[in-house]
Structure formats: structure tokens, C-alpha cells
Amino acid sequence: MTIPFSRPCRYWLLSIGLLCALPGTASAHEFWMLPRPFAIAPNGTTRLTLNVGEYFSGDIIAFSTQYVAALHHYAQDVDTDLLPKVSTTPTVGEFPIRLDKPGTHLFSYDSQPNSITLGGEKFNAYLHDEGLDGIVRQREAAGNLLKPARERYRRFVKTLAQAGDVSDATFAIRTGQRFEIVPMTDPLAAVAGERLAFTLYFEQKPLAGALIKAWRVDGDQTLMIRARTDAAGQVAFDLPYAGTWMLSVVHMIAAVGAAGYDYDSLWGNLTFSLKAAPRRQ
Questions:
Q1: Which of 94, 113, 266, 281 has the greatest number of C-beta atoms within 10 Å?
Q2: How far is CA 150 from the centre of its chain?
Q3: Residues 6 or more apart whose Cβ sits within 8 Å of residue 281
Q4: CA–CA gap between residue 48 and residue 52 (Å, rounded)
């Protein structure tokens, strides 16, 4: 399903979302990481940003250990733990990183756990929006449909960057995150209009039936395409336009080992830049 949002609709929804966009104030918001820029010359520097908002538009938040539980940089035969370089103070800003090796560079981020309590109706609406209707049915069967829900959530995000003109197999590295979107085809080698396939993993196993959204923003238009993973945890998108794309997905389970919570939710995210298709002669 493809859903376009015009400027008035997007801005109205965003104005609601940004009231709750700061860490710790809401769970029903996308959270993503971007390199600025996506492509540079070898030995150049890109700058990572953490972003939170709605409809792939929002605010940059702090790169600090208050929010960052894990941060890794992957390249050919290299896995660098960046957490020791993360600031201990919550200063909003960018994280500069030098891309020494030519080829693809993959960055992964795990958040610290955070929590929220939502009223029954708001929680049910959020579940429906994220394709978690199975949780709604469980709540209804237990007679809890209108009861508030206490949720603990974590973010597991990734982004791809490129140094030089050629990408490599780094795009498909399994980082070992608890919740992870893994490309099966190289997004950096593809062009707009080509089919891209992905596998979703939860605790290292493919996750079936999850709703994944593909987002792109162009001026006053936000495009969102929805698809569910199949029995093998796989999903494919025909992304029609060049530019920056984001995939987002949420998975929810009963809270484990935490008496103060009802649910644990895991938020997965992947960003990349898609090239334009060659012009026909």
C-alpha cells in the first residue's frame, strides 16, 4: 500500500508529533540515524545524526551515553566499537566519523531503554497504526482493551554510507542487534524503480507478519509504502524515486523480567540513499 501525504496533512500531524518528540515522552514516533552526506570520497568525513519525529521529519537529538547503549561502525573486515567516543553529556549535535576504507560503511545504534504509559484508546490506536493488531486482540480477550498500558521500548537503528564510487557486501552484515532489518540486495548499487528485498530478524530469527513502512520526503510531500514480512521474514519494495529512504518497523511482546511494565516494544529502522535510474536515450 502506498500512501502520499500533502503538506497540510503532514504539517498538521507533525505539529502534534513534535510536542511529544523528545526522548522519554512518547513511543509512537520514528527514530532514525542519517549520515551527512551519504556519499563521500575515501578518507573523507561524514557526520551522523540521530533524529526523532513523525512522517520522516523531526528534530536532531543528542549523541550521548544517556541515550546510546551501543554504536558500531562496520566496513570491509572491520567492526569498530564507537561507544567509547560518545559524549557523556546530553549535547545536541553531530557525530563526525572518518571513512578511511573505500566501499560501503554500515552504522548500527542501540538505544537505552525508555518507557511510557498510554491510555487504552491511544494505545490501541498506536498498535493499529504499527500493524500490531494481534496485541489488540490479546488485550480484548483479556478484558484489558480500555486499560492503560505501560510500555518499555528500545530503538535498533542502522544506516548505510559509501566512500568512493563502488559499494560492497558490507550492506548485508548481520550486526547481532536484537531487532534488525538486513538488506538482501544492495541498496547502494540499486537505482530507483528496482526491487529491493530485506529480511527482518528478532533475536536472530526471521520475523514473519511484521508491518514495515518505507518512507521518503520530497519537499511538501511524504510518501509511505507499507508491506508485511512473509513466512521467511522477508519483504520487498519497489521504491519509485531516488533520494533518502527510511524503513521502520515495530515489534511488541509481553514485558519480561519487569514488574512495572506490561509490554516490551522494539523499534527497527534502516536508512539509505537510492540512486536515480539512468536516463533513457
A1: 266
A2: 22
A3: none
A4: 14
